[in-house]
Amino acid sequence: MNVGEVCNREVIIIDRDGSIRDAAGLMRKYHVGNVVVVEEKNGDRFPVGILTDRDIVLELIALDVDINAVTVGDAMSFELITAREEDNVMETIKRMRHKGVRRIPVVNDRGVLEGILAVDDLIDSLSEQLTDLARLVMGGQQRETEKRL
C-alpha cells in the first residue's frame, strides 16, 4: 500500500507570514492539530514547514512568548520531512518513527502538496486491515464447523 492511498487530501494550510492566532483559529475551526505552512508558486503550494498545536503550547505559551510578536514562519518546524504519494506506507511509518513526527505532508513528484499523513490515518487504515483479517480467519473457522455438521 502506498501513502497516496491512505493520506488525507484535505490539508489545512497557512502562509509563513500568518499569525499564531490565525493558525490556532484554523486548527480549532477544522478540528486538526496542525497547519502545513506553504509557499505558493505559479498557483502550486509547496510545503515549507509545519506548525502543530504542541509547538504553540510548548515553544510559545509555555515560554511566555508574546504570540503577537512572532509569525507562523518564526515558530514552524523547519526540518520538514515529506513523503511522496507513491512511497510505501510501512517505510514511511519507519521514517516518521525515526524522526519522531506524528504527521507528514504528502507531495507529488514536483514537490507540490497533495495531502497529509497522520498517525490517526494510519491507525484507521491498519485497524480496518486487521478487522478484515480477523473476519477472514473467523469465516474460515465457521465454514469448517458447518462442513463437519
From TrEMBL:
Q: Which residues form the CBS domain?
A: 7-67, 76-133
Q: What's the name of the protein?
A: CBS domain-containing protein
> What species does this protein belong to?
Desulfobacter latus
Question: Which superkingdom is the protein from?
Answer: Bacteria
Tell me which UniProt keywords the record has, alphabetically: CBS domain
Query: What PANTHER family would the database entry show?
Result: CBS DOMAIN-CONTAINING PROTEIN, CBS DOMAIN-CONTAINING PROTEIN CBSX3, MITOCHONDRIAL
Please give the SMART domains that the UniProt record associates with this protein. Answer: CBS
Q: Does the keyword Endoplasmic reticulum apply?
A: no
